[in-house]
Design brief:
The complex is a heterodimer of chains A (121) and B (227). Chain A has 121 residues and is an alpha+beta fold. Helices cover 26% and strands 31% of the residues of chain A. The N and C termini of chain A lie far apart (45 Å). Chain B contains eight helices and eight strands. Chain B has a seven-stranded parallel β-sheet with strand order 4-3-5-2-6-7-8, sandwiched between helices. The chains are: A alpha+beta (121), B alpha/beta (227).
């Protein structure tokens, strides 16, 4: 249950990104969470809601893009289909061992905020 | 009402941890310290393995950082062997992070050790996400935990360069298909080094220590990827 630390890192980073642009109120953050990142999306949203409710932007939303890991056959140079949560060991076509690719994403991909700049029309 | 501004970014959520880890790695590279991050479920025998390892690494300066939710027990066990050990108490947090390691290694004997063992909090999930500046992660799996664990926890077994199957003296008493486990691990990580030990019976501990010594030499010789 390290989703609370992950939520805190997301908020810290998002606030930093807004500061780089001037003043603003955070509206939403979109993050990519990989299947192998050891982060559970539901728990992350739960942790985010608990955290954000105590800030000046209690309605700021967290959106999660789920990124599954891919099973890849180096011999055939192709990605293999697999059921969620299952781990094939051998390529269904050539029988060689497969490797996993991706799924370790844990990235902020977009932030949305309302600018509080008095120079705005 | 002002329209929201949207900015597309590509920023690692754990960027600050990763920066701290990179700094640690740089320091360990300068001192030629081999750093391993031990990750497993509670009770798989991390501390016991370290206890039986330390005596077999004579001639090397060894230091240990112990991560736990509560108690100094693990660090006390290691200190009894005359090796510098620090307990990091996470107070409920399920993993160690790079900044905690930065705070501890300023103590005498840690930053310039030959081998620094970091024993993470007992947990197969959360520690996987946090880089501690180590050379590689080692996953431990005891035979009493069941032979389906690599596929159930693919994250750690994909990332760990080494897996140690522990308590193999218990193989006769549990249903644990060693071959199936090795197949699972290799399918998640083709290059994984798999060792099978019993700290209690002393099985394959010399092999494990020889592996550590040769990996340390490899690091100092700058010879390719570790291990």
């Amino acid at each position: 249950m390290h989703e609370t630390s992950i939520a805190a890192s997301i908020l810290e980073t998002a606030q930093g990104l807004i500061r780089e642009q001037g003043e603003g109120r955070l509206e939403s953050v979109k993050v990519a969470v990989g299947e192998l990142s050891a982060v559970e999306p539901d728990l992350l949203v739960f942790a985010w809601e608990a955290l954000i409710s105590g800030t000046s932007t209690p309605d700021a939303a967290l959106e999660i893009e789920w990124s599954p890991a891919q099973t890849y056959c180096p011999t055939c140079n192709r990605n293999l289909d697999r059921a969620r949560g299952s781990w094939l060991r051998l390529c269904s076509k050539c029988g060689d061992p497969v490797v996993t690719k991706g799924g370790d994403e844990l990235d902020i991909v977009q932030i949305s905020f309302i600018q509080e700049d008095s120079n705005q029309p | 009402m002002t329209e929201p501004t949207k900015i597309d970014v590509k920023r690692r959520i754990l960027e600050s941890n990763e920066l701290a880890a990179a700094k640690l790695r740089q320091g360990f590279s300068a001192t030629g310290t081999l750093v391993v991050n031990l990750i497993s479920s509670p009770g798989s025998g991390k501390t016991t393995l370290l206890e039986s390892t330390i005596g077999r690494l004579s001639g090397l300066k060894v230091a240990v950082l112990e991560g736990d939710i509560a108690t100094e027990r693990d660090a006390d066990r290691i200190r009894k062997l005359g090796v510098p050990a620090r307990q990091i108490l996470t107070g409920g947090s399920c993993h160690l992070d790079a900044r905690q390691i930065q705070r501890e290694i300023v103590e005498e004997g840690f930053a310039n050790a030959d081998i620094l063992f970091i024993e993470n909090v007992g947990n197969l999930i959360c520690p996987t996400a946090y880089d501690l500046g180590e050379d590689f992660k080692i996953a431990l799996l005891s035979v009493s935990e069941g032979d389906d664990k690599p596929f159930k926890y693919p994250g750690i077994f994909s990332k760990a360069a080494v897996t140690i199957i522990t308590k193999i003296d218990l193989l006769d008493y549990v249903d644990f298909d060693l071959e199936a486990v090795e197949d699972q691990i290799r399918s998640l990580n083709q290059r994984s080094v798999i060792l099978k030990t019993s700290a209690r019976a002393g099985t394959h501990l010399d092999e494990w220590c020889a592996f550590l010594r040769s990996t340390l030499e490899k690091k100092r010789g700058g010879a390719g990827p570790l291990p």
